[in-house]
Write a structure and sequence with these properties.
By secondary structure, the protein is α/β, with parallel strands linked by helices. The chain is 36% helix and 16% strand. It has helices spanning 36-50, 75-85, 98-106, 129-140, 159-167, 174-188, 207-213, 227-233, 248-261, 307-318, 339-349, 360-368, 383-391, 396-399, and strands at residues 16-20, 27-28, 31-32, 54-58, 89-91, 112-114, 145-148, 170-172, 194-198, 219-222, 264-266, 270-274, 283-287, 301-305, 322-326, 354-357, 378-379. The strands form four sheets. Strands 5-6-4-1-7-8 form a six-stranded parallel β-sheet, sandwiched between helices. Strands 11-10-9-15-16-17 form a six-stranded parallel β-sheet, with helices on both faces. Strands 13-12-14 form a three-stranded antiparallel β-sheet. α3 (98-106) links the parallel β5 and β6 (112-114). The termini are close together.
């Protein structure tokens, strides 16, 4: 069944639209350091405002403990959103309290308000469906329709994602519809060769996507902290590098399956090993099977793929027609260990086909390393959601919209 889209809601002029966005952006001293998710929400918000709707936006930010915390306030988001839209955004200092009601009542056609952090109310993420439904009813009060446009949370059964969509006529926003279109191409009709590039710290975070996609891809490229579990599975000494010992046998199984399926499995042939986990740590590049023999001995810790591996990975990516990448190749936040991630990102910009950056740390990496969003086929706004979609997992926030 096709997901319900904005057109199914009819004429929205003069109607109050409650919209779930994903404004979970990084903040430093109240300053937004990556506004990618805010920018991604603009097409849907503009479409609603241009129709003359009264738009009430809601989102979470960070992980507050179910009560207000100033460091997680959405006030900076409201200010930046107003600058990007070129109009004032009314900000409610609560979610369903007196100020939220005041702000909603004052809205005129074509105006936008933003509610305070949803997770300041413990019912948003409650395990009790009744508590979530109670909050959803309060959020939905006075609204005519609901638009779900926070792709980064569609894998969560939360009040503002799931129960609100049941309480009101509901549809997916332009961002969610776009995410589904792109990610569906990765699972249903990818052009070949098809490469999946996985990194990040833990192999356990990626087991589901490996299992689901291994029979569907031509190339599987492994980097990041998870690579050391693969190297350990090959019998190599990884010294003090990140290792999930309990996943070694499972990784061996995937390696055997890749061989049986004829999937090209690319593992690093060289690794940048450091004396410690710090930006200015002494480091050297060694062969992937010689990490324990670096000059740092058993204390050595792998923090990036080496230059030979980066070149090989880039070539595999560049010559593919479809690429999905999730997870940095190393500790990209430290310049000395960002080379592998930068090489992969650069190669994705050169793909003659569809190149998808799978949200989360990967999206942060490409922006932090100075790449323009427009250089990529698509940058997902949902790291966990995009992975779960590719795993074939149940996504409650999509099911409730008819998916």
């Amino acid at each position: 069944m096709a997901i319900r889209t904005l057109e199914t809601l009819g004429d929205l002029a003069g109607r109050t639209v409650l919209i779930r966005c994903d404004f979970n952006v990084p903040l430093e001293d109240g300053r937004i350091t990556d506004e990618g998710r805010i920018v991604a929400s603009l097409p849907t918000l503009r479409a609603l405002l241009e129709q003359g709707a009264k738009v009430v936006a809601m989102s979470h930010l960070g992980r507050p403990k179910g009560a207000p915390e100033e460091r997680y306030s959405l006030a900076p988001v409201a200010a930046r959103l107003g600058e990007l839209l070129g109009q004032e955004v009314a900000f409610a200092t609560d979610t369903v309290g007196e100020d939220a009601q005041r702000v909603r009542i004052a809205l005129q056609d074509g105006q936008l308000a933003l509610l305070e952090n949803l997770r300041f109310d413990p019912r948003e993420t409650s395990k009790d469906a009744g508590e979530r439904a109670e909050l959803a009813a309060e959020l939905a009060a006075g609204a005519d329709v609901f638009v779900s446009d926070g792709f980064g949370v569609v894998h969560r059964e939360q009040a503002s994602v799931f129960e609100v969509a049941q309480a009101l006529p509901s549809a997916a926003g332009l961002l969610v519809a776009k995410e589904l279109e792109v990610l569906s191409r990765l699972t249903e009709s990818p052009e070949r060769p098809y490469a999946v590039v996985l990194g990040g710290s833990k192999v356990s975070d990626k087991l589901g996507v490996i299992e689901h996609l291994l029979p569907r891809v031509d190339r599987l490229v492994i980097g990041g902290g998870m690579l050391f579990t693969f190297l350990k599975a090959l019998g190599h000494d990884v010294a003090s590098s990140l290792l999930e010992e309990d996943q070694v046998e499972r990784v061996l199984g995937y390696m055997k399956q890749a061989e049986e399926l004829g999937v090209q499995l690319l593992l690093p042939t060289d690794v940048v090993v450091a004396e410690s986990f710090s930006a200015d740590a002494a480091h050297e590049t060694v062969a992937a099977d010689a990490i324990g023999g670096s000059r740092f001995g058993a204390k050595g810790i792998g923090l990036d793929i080496g230059p030979d591996s980066a070149a090989a990975f880039a070539e595999a990516i560049r010559t593919s027609r479809t690429v999905f990448w999730n997870g940095p190749m190393g500790v990209f936040e430290m310049p000395a260990f960002a080379h592998g991630t930068k090489a992969v990102a650069q190669a994705l910009t050169e793909v003659d086909g569809l190149a998808v950056v799978g949200g989360g740390d990967s999206a942060a990496a490409v922006r932090g390393l100075g790449f323009d969003d427009a250089a990529f086929g698509h940058i997902s706004t949902g790291g966990g959601a995009s992975l779960e979609f590719l795993e074939g997992a149940r996504l409650p926030g999509l099911e409730v919209l008819g998916w």
